[in-house]
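Suppose a colleague, Dr. K., hands you the sequence of a protein chain of 208 amino acids and asks what its three-dimensional shape might be. Before reaching for any lab equipment, you can write down a predicted structure in token form. Begin with the sequence itself:
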Amino acid sequence: MSEWIYFFDLCGTAVFALSGALAAGRHRMDPFGVIVLASVTAVGGGSIRDALLGTTPVFWIRDPNYIIVILLTVLLTMLFVRKPKKVPQHTLPIADALGLALFTVIGAEKALSLELGGMIAVVMGLITGVGGGIIRDLLCRQIPMILRTEIYATASIVGGISYSLSIHLGAVDKQALVLAMIAALAIRLAAIKWHLSLPAFDLKTNKQ
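The predicted structure, expressed as tokens, is then:
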């Protein structure tokens, strides 16, 4: 893993840990609960990805820096965000969008580094991007964000395709990374701002 990708991976870990800590605060969890929720949000998707790819031990066991980043993020959040109810409404969705964009690209890069195909790279990017958020929402007894809000998974898929296609066309890692993150983030933020969504699959039964 290049230094740039490793840096963005740590940034994504911090962002998703922040979103997990904010969710824990809104549900009035104790400090242990905040750490647990922040941790599963930050490393859940990547752990599922590594398990599926057979790259074990998973990344955060091989590199304790990820745990350190999570703990520091939790500590800073608990110190400086004293009243979760006063946190702006869009803070959690925006933090989640940043994490989604970052982790999508990291997941796709991991698959391509193992010389897997572009389709697998897109799937691994999606799993990495949404896996932690799904676990977070389930622990908070909520329908996962991927199932209940505006365009979400689509943003991750576009980001994964952008990264894989850029690498295929000969772009260097840094350029492909930035392009794919901008693509995924722009789509997700647009969906948040304008409440964009895909058409619903609605099966209506005929009344007798």
